[in-house]
Amino acid sequence: MYKFLIPVFALIATSALAGDIDKRQVLTITEPQRLHVIEEMAALLSGTQNILAALSKSDMAAVHQYASSLGIGMYHKAEDHLKGVLPKEFMKLGISVHQDFDTIAADALSIKDPKHTLQQLGESMSKCVVCHATYQIRTVKTSLKSTSKFNHHEH
Length: 155
Description:
By secondary structure, the chain is mainly alpha-helical. The protein has one domain: Four Helix Bundle (Hemerythrin (Met), subunit A) (Up-down Bundle). 72% of the residues lie in helices and 6% in strands. It contains eight helices and two strands, in the order H-E-H-H-H-H-H-H-E-H. It has a two-stranded parallel sheet with strand order 1-2. It is elongated, with a radius of gyration of 20 Å. It starts with a helix and ends in an 8-residue tail after the last helix.
């Protein structure tokens, strides 16, 4: 009897997913640009996890260190090639997240209050939620000639 239910549940799940149309704005970028965006998001997620681990130990010096690495300096490393490609609203949201981490880093040393930092992280991560709810990334096929101009973004 249970073997019969598995395909039924799979069909229901697939039908439900097919009925949900993704209404997020499509951002069409090249594969190297997509990899850069994904690497940056992964670094932000990993850094946030490191901050949370440091907060669990009330290690505000470590919070400062991790948050500093995610600040506006991280943004300036390779964003120029994305400015003309991605919407201004997307770029502003990203910049504001990096600025949030600079504030978190400064406050970790001056205020030294883990609860304050948690509040700041929550507010900053709400921007991540908004971004992921608003945008989806799709890649466009490019020739080797047009792709090569984006290879300068490596860290």
